[in-house]
Amino acid sequence: MPLTKRIIPCLDIKDGRVVKGTHFEGLRDAGDPVELAARYNEQGADEVVFLDITASKENRGTIIPVIERAADELFLPLTVGGGIRSIEDIQQVLRAGADKVSLNTSAVTDPDLITEAAERFGTQCVVVAIDVRANPEMKEGTTPVVLADGREVWYEVVTMGGSHPTGLDAVQWAQEVEKRGAGEILLTSMETDGTKAGFDIPITRAISERVGIPVIASGGVGTLEHFWEGFALGKADACLAASVFHYGEMTVSQVKEYLAGRGIQVRR
């Protein structure tokens, strides 16, 4: 029997508040993280992701109390990412009550951290977040991905909120993080993030078909159909969204009802 597909609200946190923007810019306040997460809990969310988007050491003190509050009040898995650079950081976040940690820039700069974290805490605790951008300049050794208009591009891993190109091929990096012990990949396309034009299906499918661990599609949800596309066309195991939930455009339960009606197995 196929595994049920997950719906995951994502809360970007800055100074203890949920914020949302487009392409990580133009941030506006969306509320208290624990209150919002509790609402999603009631709506039937399968998990919640907290991302500390300021991702600097001085804000670590802000996110820990938020995690502790969430762990006390919620009954659903909690993934926390942003500014996690060491085994000690991971330990601190898991101790505060998170079920999983999400590594992004630190995984790129120190791939051994993935391996060490997986060995120390178990693969089920380690999510590697991969932010990508399409690069039309094909070069030798990269994985070609065909876009809807027939053009061939490769997808490059970017860090620092999409501003820093790394030169890493996204498909190959996804395969490497799996080998190193990541239990899941959280894939965000800078092409679609915050646009409400739908997930970036070509790269979501390309990575989902080449790894054996769950891929969470992220970036671009605007309609109920976009969730269906993420699962049916992108082959994702989970779909993550933020603003459509935060601003009440749709509820998790509405999404699940819609998906069930279109033949996608979801936990009700």
From TrEMBL:
A GO biological process held by the record: L-histidine biosynthetic process
Any GO MF annotation of the entry: lyase activity
One term under GO cellular component: cytoplasm
Location(s), subcellular: Cytoplasm
Catalytic reaction list: 5-[(5-phospho-1-deoxy-D-ribulos-1-ylimino)methylamino]-1-(5-phospho-beta-D-ribosyl)imidazole-4-carboxamide + L-glutamine = D-erythro-1-(imidazol-4-yl)glycerol 3-phosphate + 5-amino-1-(5-phospho-beta-D-ribosyl)imidazole-4-carboxamide + L-glutamate + H(+)
Main location: cytoplasm
Function, as annotated: IGPS catalyzes the conversion of PRFAR and glutamine to IGP, AICAR and glutamate. The HisF subunit catalyzes the cyclization activity that produces IGP and AICAR from PRFAR using the ammonia provided by the HisH subunit.
NCBIfam families (UniProt xref): hisF
Listed name of the protein: Imidazole glycerol phosphate synthase subunit HisF
